């Protein structure tokens, strides 16, 4: 009995709704799909697709899966991945308008390009090898150059700055990776219904990639069963977050645009994926709680929630949930069919304005300085308006403080001088001991490993702005490390700012969510925000210079040896005597003129008249001049053609 | 701007800030000294808006600048603001952007350059410290400054007065401080789009007086004739150009060379060059008066289309402009002379100097050995030391003269430029006298015949000039080129005047006359007056000193290396030539 209880504890914690299933004799693999729609304050609409696939622990080796993708389970078994997250992102998350303090943004606002982190369940010495193998496997699986993360210069091992405390964690990101359909297709292949049926059928490629922000994420974690002989279960969570701009016809600028699923995606949902246990569509409206009455007992008032003076929905929601900052409408798409497709629409009648909850501090990062030699990186944290209202303030020594973790990877060609770290709080320079609570630095090694900076700042609550600057020198790359063409510059990956004392979660007043999407929102997640990717222009050497140097050196050598040999070989006295004995010979100059005119006219030289070697030596000086002219001409021609390019 | 979906902020700056400091010549732009006591009486406000590219990664940005005077901006300034505003609202809606767009409306009450420079300083090297400026006025600008990554290119748009030609005219200004040029590709893109797509008449600045000069026309005709002759000899030789083209080209080249040599940026784009950002100023002149509404639409459309095309071209670039197109001289908006070609002329000019120096040294040594039974004969190889001492002393004098204005500026009280120039002139000439008096053998007027041999002195002078010119050609080629044109003939031709007068031969008299003329022209003040005359401005006798002072002041205010060249290379070499001319031997 005791062992039975023990086995249930992790299950209870991690998958509360599975309990009901666990009573059954055999646990089944589960798949559920959900779509969350959320109008944003800046006239855009966020669509968040959420798919969850669970494989329960089982003891069969070489197992057969019903729903769970085999590629992922093999990956987990082979590299003993405990937890892993891979995200492909295009565009930037707008923290100001799209929110920064809800679970949606803290989990799905990702840096541009590819980001990968993984925790392994292997001995410390094998973590790096596992990571390298994993990157190669993933790069094949997702048609992306994730294998570039293999080299030790591109990943780091954060200890506490990343939020997960583990020494078997590896983190790497590729800011330059372009994200397109070729990455989405393999991601969709992991779903049981692909994009043929259910919610994923909405993913019309042109409309998805036309959006302002696009982030596809794959998160997997293993669940230890605890029982002997049983393997571990896997939870695979796949999300796609898109921010779209609905097309509007109204001229009024402060009116929110009305939209429907078919106008956003150009497609409609015709029934759920038959393999899914639940498939729901949610519509979240923020900031609508103030002018609604508290009790929704009567039918009329419930009706008022979705059809009122401000807006109306085209379909009747199955349920309405209230959470701390807004309303959540739940729709079940099982009822829809070919004849009656599910096409949710939101029609605004009155202009409305609201603002999103923002993270306590808004971070931006930029480069300072000019020139190709050195510079500085600055991270600017600005207080947002919602800062005072947020929970999570801490009182240490009677002072109210906000904690902020900064985690930053520096590529080795950015040689950071950590002693130049300067911190300004509200335009006053502070010493490190005043605001820095913890700092962890691992310097980079040239061409071997990247540098990493983790620090925990403790700022007073009433802080308006804080700035951190750190100076660096630009390194020199080896000739074959340069990209083949004239390059744009080199990237510094995003810094991660997280607030360890702030947690984002939606809390619903009613208790009934069985949906994995809602339960993941209910869990407390760390508030995080990624900064911009920076572009560092490094000195680009002139790659044709070695060629020029070789040419000029050869010319100098030739001139030197030529004249030296000339001096050694020639006997001037003898030549003069010889010339005197020969006497003057006419016709040399005339012949030269003939040749010159022929050259100028571009015709071949006429058949040369018989010339004796003696005659040649007589006008040696003129020949020399001619040679010099020839060389000069060749040089001029070479100059002309070389500059022409 | 925020209506268009852009992020807007204001930035305050100080109009002044250019002060002469001798050590600031080659330091980077971030060494601006922050003034401690700041008055709220005068400050400018820049407005900037940023459009974030919808799917871009925010690593790079393109900057559009329109100078605008908020208080007394004319119709033309409003027109430029209108063109950029329309374009900006278009760009806020397009989907092809991959780089962010920044639109800076610079407050041009305090000149065009200063607000842009202040904004760039704030962009690239902000001070996180508290500034008094932020508390001025009701506008709160603190912590609102926004950035958008590395700048890829910048375009400054100005609408100027009416065009004299039939078409709308577009003038391109490219020269930044110390003769630095933006990437040629940027000019090419603008020129191509303006000529072939929008039908603008594109021009770059040229020296107008050269266009009508007859001697240049004759040279052009000779070139044309030679080109034709060559073409008849061999049909493949097509180097002949029409006289008109030649005239235009040389006038443009002269202007290009002159503005590069001055080292003063020709517009607000110069501020960007300090941060390695390619930037040009486009000055558009419409062919209609600003109040005619009918033609305005067409002009609007074409101006905005040109800018859009340029931005789109830069936007579509995956990499930077190629790094090798920075050294060039423009002969027309579509033609240029590459560094590989124009270096040859300079190299040939300068190459004669070391050869002449070597031959003179050998001659001088021989003469010295013949004329005197030198007691110090065993120090034969140290003969140049005396001359070197003199050359060094005069160069030191040049350095002091260069630094003098700094101290003159520190003299309390308000002085007019002419007063200051007189102060400068008197102090430097008295210094010169002191130098001649204290250092033996320096003075050209000393009666000692056992002073340094003039040939040795000339050889050392020539070597010093050679080194100076070569150094300058690395820093600012155009200055070195113009300087070499003056300095090389002077140094080569100069000879003691006394023996020439004594001999009374035509050849030596002619040489003496030539050296006199060259030396008169070579005096910096004289040179300034001549160049003023050349560029079509009147010559006023008395105020010349004042004007010269203002000119020099502008040079050091812009941190132009030309000032250093004049003070530390040209002036000492000119003085040395003077010494040789009046050498007693």
Automatic annotation (TrEMBL), chain A:
Q: Does the keyword Ribosomal protein apply?
A: no
Sequence intervals crossing the membrane: 547-568, 624-641
Q: Which UniProt keywords apply?
A: Membrane, Signal, Transmembrane, Transmembrane helix
Superkingdom, natural source: Eukaryota
Kindly provide the name given to this protein in its UniProt entry: GPI transamidase component PIG-T isoform X2
Signal peptide start-end: 1-24
| Gene that specifies this protein | LOC104731341
Q: Which InterPro entries does this UniProt record tie to the protein?
A: PIG-T
Automatic annotation (TrEMBL), chain B:
Note the InterPro entries from the entry: Gaa1 (IPR007246)
Q: Does the keyword Transmembrane apply?
A: yes
Look up the coiled coil feature and give its residue ranges: none
Q: Where are the transmembrane segments?
A: 339-362, 391-409, 421-440, 460-488, 509-530, 562-582
Name the UniProt key words of this record, in alphabetical order.
Membrane, Transmembrane, Transmembrane helix
Q: Does the keyword Membrane apply?
A: yes
Q: Name one Pfam family in it.
A: Gaa1
| PANTHER family reported for this sequence | GLYCOSYLPHOSPHATIDYLINOSITOL ANCHOR ATTACHMENT 1 PROTEIN (PTHR13304:SF0)
The entry's protein name is: Glycosylphosphatidylinositol anchor attachment 1 protein isoform X4
Organism equals Camelina sativa (False flax)
Which taxonomic lineage is given here? Eukaryota, Viridiplantae, Streptophyta, Embryophyta, Tracheophyta
Gene symbol?
LOC104770262
């Amino acid at each position: 009995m005791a062992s039975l209880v023990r086995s249930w504890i992790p299950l209870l914690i991690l998958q509360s709704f599975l309990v009901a299933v666990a009573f059954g004799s055999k646990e089944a693999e589960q798949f559920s799909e959900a779509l969350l729609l959320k109008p944003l304050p800046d006239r855009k609409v966020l669509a968040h697709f959420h798919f969850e696939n669970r494989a329960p622990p089982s003891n069969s080796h070489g197992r057969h899966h019903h729903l769970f993708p085999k590629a992922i389970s093999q990956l987990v078994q082979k590299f003993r991945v405990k937890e892993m997250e891979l995200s492909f992102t295009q565009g930037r998350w707008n923290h100001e308008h799209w929110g920064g303090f809800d679970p949606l943004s803290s989990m799905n606002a990702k840096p541009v390009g590819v980001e990968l982190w993984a925790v392994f369940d292997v001995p410390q010495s094998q973590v790096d090898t596992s990571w390298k193998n994993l990157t190669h496997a993933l790069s094949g699986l997702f048609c992306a150059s994730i294998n570039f993360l293999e080299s030790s210069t591109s990943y780091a091992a954060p200890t506490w700055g990343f939020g997960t405390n583990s020494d078997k964690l590896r983190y790497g990101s590729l800011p330059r990776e372009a994200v397109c359909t070729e990455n989405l297709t393999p991601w969709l292949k992991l779903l049981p219904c692909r994009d043929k049926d259910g919610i994923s059928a909405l993913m019309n490629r042109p409309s998805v990639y036309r959006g302002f922000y696009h982030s596809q994420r794959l998160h997997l974690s293993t669940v230890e069963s605890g029982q002997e002989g049983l393997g571990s279960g896997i939870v695979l969570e796949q999300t796609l977050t898109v921010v779209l701009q609905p097309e509007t016809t109204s001229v009024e600028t402060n009116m929110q645009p009305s939209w429907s699923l078919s106008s956003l995606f150009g497609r409609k949902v015709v029934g759920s994926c038959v393999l899914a246990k639940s498939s729901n569509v949610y519509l979240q409206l923020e900031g609508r709680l103030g002018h609604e009455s508290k009790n929704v007992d009567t039918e009329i008032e419930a009706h008022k929630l979705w059809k009122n003076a401000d807006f109306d929905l085209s379909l009747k929601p199955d349920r309405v949930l209230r959470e701390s900052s807004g309303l959540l409408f739940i729709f079940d798409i099982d009822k829809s069919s070919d004849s009656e497709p599910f096409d949710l629409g939101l029609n605004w009648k009155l202009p409305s304005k609201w603002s999103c909850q923002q993270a306590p501090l808004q971070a931006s990062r930029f480069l300072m300085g000019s020139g190709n030699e050195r510079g500085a990186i600055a991270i600017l944290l600005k207080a947002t308006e919602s800062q005072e209202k947020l929970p999570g303030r801490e009182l240490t020594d009677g002072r109210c403080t906000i904690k902020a973790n900064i985690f930053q990877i520096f590529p080795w060609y950015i040689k950071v001088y950590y002693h130049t770290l300067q911190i300004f709080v509200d335009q006053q320079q502070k010493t490190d001991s005043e605001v820095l609570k913890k700092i962890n630095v691992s310097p980079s090694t040239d061409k071997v490993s990247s540098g990493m900076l983790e620090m925990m700042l403790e700022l007073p609550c009433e802080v308006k702005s804080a700035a951190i600057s750190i100076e660096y020198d630009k390194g020199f790359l080896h000739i074959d490390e340069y990209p083949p063409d004239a390059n744009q510059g080199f990237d510094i990956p995003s810094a991660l700012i997280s607030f360890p004392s702030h947690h984002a979660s939606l809390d619903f007043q009613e208790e009934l969510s069985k949906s994995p999407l809602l339960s993941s929102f209910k869990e407390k997640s760390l508030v995080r925000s990624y900064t911009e990717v920076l572009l560092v222009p490094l000195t680009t050497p002139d790659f044709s210079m070695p060629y020029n140097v070789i040419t000029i050196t050869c010319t100098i050598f030739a001139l030197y040896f030529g004249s030296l040999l000339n001096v050694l070989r020639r006997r001037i006295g003898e030549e003069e005597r010889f010339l005197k004995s020969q006497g003057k010979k006419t016709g040399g100059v005339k012949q030269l003129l003939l040749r010159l005119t022929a050259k100028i006219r571009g015709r071949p030289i006429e058949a040369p008249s018989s010339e004796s070697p003696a005659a040649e030596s007589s006008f040696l000086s003129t020949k020399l001049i001619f040679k010099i002219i020839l060389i000069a001409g060749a040089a001029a021609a070479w100059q002309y053609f070389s500059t022409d390019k | 701007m925020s209506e268009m979906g852009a992020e807007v902020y204001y930035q305050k700056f100080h109009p002044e800030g250019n002060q002469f400091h001798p050590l600031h010549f080659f330091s980077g732009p971030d060494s601006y000294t922050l003034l401690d006591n700041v008055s709220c009486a005068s400050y400018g406000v820049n407005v900037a808006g940023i459009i974030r590219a919808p799917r871009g990664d925010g690593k790079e940005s393109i900057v559009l600048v329109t100078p605008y005077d908020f208080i007394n901006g004319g119709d033309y300034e409003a027109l430029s603001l209108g063109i950029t505003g329309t374009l900006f609202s278009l760009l806020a809606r397009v989907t092809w952007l991959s780089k962010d767009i920044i639109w800076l409306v610079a407050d041009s009450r305090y000149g065009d350059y200063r607000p842009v420079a202040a904004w760039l300083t704030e962009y690239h090297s902000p001070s996180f410290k508290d500034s008094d400026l932020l508390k001025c006025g009701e506008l709160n600008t603190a912590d609102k400054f926004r950035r958008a990554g590395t700048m890829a290119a910048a375009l400054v748009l100005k609408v100027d007065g009416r065009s004299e030609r039939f078409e709308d005219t577009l003038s391109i200004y490219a020269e930044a401080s110390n003769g630095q040029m933006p990437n040629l590709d940027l000019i090419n893109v603008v020129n191509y789009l303006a000529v072939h797509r929008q039908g603008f008449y594109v021009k770059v600045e040229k020296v107008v007086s050269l266009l009508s000069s007859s001697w240049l026309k004759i040279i052009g005709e000779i070139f044309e004739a030679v080109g034709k002759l060559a073409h008849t000899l061999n049909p493949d030789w097509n180097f002949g150009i029409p006289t008109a083209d030649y005239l235009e080209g040389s006038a443009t080249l002269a202007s290009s060379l002159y503005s590069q040599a001055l080292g003063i940026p020709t517009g607000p784009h110069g501020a960007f060059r300090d941060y390695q950002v390619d930037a040009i100023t486009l000055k558009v002149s419409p062919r209609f008066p600003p109040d005619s509404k009918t033609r305005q639409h067409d002009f609007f459309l074409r101006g905005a289309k040109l800018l859009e095309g340029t931005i789109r071209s830069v936007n579509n670039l995956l990499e930077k402009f190629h790094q090798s197109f920075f050294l060039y001289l423009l002969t027309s908006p579509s033609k240029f002379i590459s560094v590989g070609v124009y270096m040859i002329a300079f190299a040939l000019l300068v190459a004669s100097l070391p050869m002449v120096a070597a031959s003179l040294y050998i001659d001088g040594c021989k003469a010295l050995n013949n004329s005197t039974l030198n007691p110090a004969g065993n120090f034969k190889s140290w003969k140049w030391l005396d001359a070197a001492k003199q050359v060094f002393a005069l160069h030191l004098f040049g350095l002091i003269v260069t630094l003098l204005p700094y101290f003159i500026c520190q003299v309390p009280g308000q002085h007019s430029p002419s007063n200051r120039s007189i102060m400068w002139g008197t102090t430097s000439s008295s210094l010169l006298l002191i130098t001649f008096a204290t250092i033996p053998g320096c003075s050209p007027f000393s009666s000692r015949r056992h002073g340094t041999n003039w040939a040795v002195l000339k050889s050392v002078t020539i070597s010093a000039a050679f080194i100076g010119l070569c150094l300058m050609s690395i820093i600012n080629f155009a200055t070195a080129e113009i300087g070499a044109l003056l300095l090389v003939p002077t140094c080569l031709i100069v000879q003691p005047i006394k023996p020439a007068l004594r001999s009374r031969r035509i050849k030596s008299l002619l040489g003496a006359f030539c050296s006199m003329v060259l030396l008169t022209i070579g005096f910096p003040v004289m040179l300034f007056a001549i160049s003023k005359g050349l560029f079509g401005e009147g010559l006023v006798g008395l105020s010349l000193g004042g004007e010269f002072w203002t000119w020099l002041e502008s040079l050091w205010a812009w941190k132009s290396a030309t000032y250093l060249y004049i003070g530390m290379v040209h002036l000492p070499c000119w003085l040395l030539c003077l010494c040789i001319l009046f050498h007693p031997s």
